[in-house]
Amino acid sequence: MIGRTLSFTPLPFAAALLLSVSAWPLAAETPVDPLAFVDPMIGTGPEGHTFPGASAPFGMVQLSPDTDATCQIRDCYAHAAGYSYHDPTIQGFSHTHFSGAGHSDLGDILVMPQTGAVLLDPGDPKQPRSGYRQRFSHDSEKASPGYYAVTLADSGIRAELTAGERVGIHRYAFPAGQEAHLLIDLRSSLYDYPGKILWSGLHLHPDGTLTGFRETRGWAPGRKLFFAMRFSAPLKDHTFLDRDQAVPYKGFQAPGRGSDALAEKLGKALEARLDFGRLAGPLEVRVALSGVDEAGAIANLDAEGAGFDTVRKRTEDAWRRALGRLEMDAPEPMRRNLYTALYHTLLAPSIWSDVDGRYRGPDDQVRQAKDFTFRSTFSLWDTFRAEHPLLTLVQPEKTTSDVVNSLIASQQHSPHGILPVWQFAGRETWTMIGYHAVPVIADAYLKGFRGFDADKALAAMVASADYAPYGGLGDYMKLGYVPIDREPEAASKTVEYAYDDWTIARMAQAMGRDDVARRFLARSGYWRNSFDVKSGWLRARKADGSFRTPFDPTAINYGSDYTEGNAWQYSWFVPQDQAALFRVLGGDAKAIARLDAMFDYDMSKLDYSHAEDIAGLIGQYIHGNEPSHHVAYLYAHAGAPWRTQARLKQIVESQYKPTPDGLSGNDDLGQMSAWLVFTALGFYPVTPGSNQYVIGRPFVRRAVLTLPDGRHFTVEAENMSDANIYVGSVELNGRPLDRSWIADEDIRKGGSLRFIMQSRPNIEWGKGAGTRPYSLSTATPAR
């Protein structure tokens, strides 16, 4: 989402079916250590926007190298995560990063070790030694969950990074005989918004602890971050510099330390030069973050800031437990893709509350989380689709309840009284459309999660759906659609609101709130009001009821009728009632023909380079962006799941590779990765809130999901090979399964799902009307 990417070359359908990522070995190999199959470099090329540095599962700290933090806003897209694999220099190591976002901010508290003359500015990456940035080689890099290392070529310093939940630990080995220096640059940020640093401070305490803060305005306004830093060697000398002598910002003022501070500095452009002299061994730098205050950062450091090796082992063990919940056996390239994808899904939503439960909320006030850990970093337009449904399976005990409690708390403290849209560090960015916290909450409740107040949750959902000033909702409630002459991207907003409304109805009905259920069930049908039956396309309507003209289903751009897409992608977004949509299209055969036309569309005469975030094209199917993610599974809704099976092979083999350039689009906080994990297991949540997963085809020989009570759910694929791409039959717990979906409860109670693969499609399996996945209008049971 949000940003311009280069598309992969689309593969012809027949050719894609023959292409193989590897030959299928005859014997399965059992993974010894899941960390051995994770490659954090996957996606660090210009499209994936992932970072290679160290983080704990869902950690507040993402300690990672920044290869270019000085670019201007419009030139920073490839550096949205701070690191781009194709850059030749490292500017420093900062403590906060997004994984796979299509936009950026963060890059907080940059640290750079130096020897010799201390340089205060990053310099020109094209002119070596013009500043403190340094050249490096990928041959010297090592990255694994919770650990990153690199040698800075210009100084010979070996840098190692690890991280706990709220701490980042640096270890720098300086060349023998060289004096050790650190530069802390509070000016540096990802995306160089003009005037981004509003205010900052540095305080040196008598015990040698360095604390500080900064307030920034960027993607999220008025974001405050505090830190505490300790060193394994005593300071020999230090200098605090303010590189900007402009009039100080008169807003937020952190209290000075007075007599408690050996030195302090406030300003807009602060740097700290720290001198340690010649050291007998590596220097460890232990850093804790807090969104509350410096005291909170110190408390976090006291609680978690052990030595480098201790923190690294603790975090690696946490990753082994998290990744070990899903054991996967597949050919080595696929297994590397899958474990890395699973790793990426476990980086966010990140922890935002301190060890004492305090956090800074969306109203900029300090709040107290009771009985849950407050989490932030919600890219909900992306992640409601597969990322959050996956977390309900692989991290079910606490993570999902924490997420829902955090969403509810955010709504209660929001100045607007609505759930988060795209939130990080507790701050709202108002990015993307819909109120997609709603399906995340409903999906959790309908799956049986009860670690939150359901009445407060439903009230928050309704408040968000009824907030008239947001995104044309006032007109949506009055007219039954969002009018394009009053609100941009109106067609997309109409259908996304309708789906969200259906999830409110589902949860309300399960809670016995029939009054709420009836109202939102009616709203869930508003998608029809923007569907032009004559042309067969979802289209934007004006307030007078007419469809906007001229109309071109291939037109794509911001501010148009659609959000990061066009009519080809958005005309399929009725996940709550695909059967009704197919009837509008003229029946199953015509729906299948339209799906085939989407994938087989000749793109040679179209140029989408002007549109941001349009990547991974297979015809008009755009895998690098989320509106297409459910589309390949829709053949099953038309009684032709064998066509889904063939399309999935085409997508997987053209859109995912175990290389830095291995993601065709932004990972979007784990959504691209979650799609791959689900697809490899053989099923996908087309309609979160239905408690169903549509069966596709597996890309693993065997996978075992460990459930909270010790039970297991096993996926097995018999006769898997490059030739056997179709599902001949499926067995659930040893019994033939004729339907093309499984229920969430089928997984949670444990058991097995067995696929028998073959080279020819079984066109009868899943064909009958009673065997198809959930659609509201056909009343297929949704358990």
Automatic annotation (TrEMBL):
PANTHER family: PEPTIDE N-GLYCANASE PNGASE -RELATED, SECRETED PROTEIN. InterPro entries: 6-hairpin_glycosidase_sf, GH-type_carb-bd, GH92_a_mannosidase_put, GH92_N, Glyco_hydro_92, PNGase. Residues 1-27 form the signal peptide. Keywords: Hydrolase, Signal. It comes from Sphingobium chungbukense. NCBIfam families: aman2_put. Residues 297-758 form the Glycosyl hydrolase family domain. It holds the Pfam family Glyco_hydro_92N. This is Sugar hydrolase. GO terms for biological process: carbohydrate metabolic process; glycoprotein catabolic process.
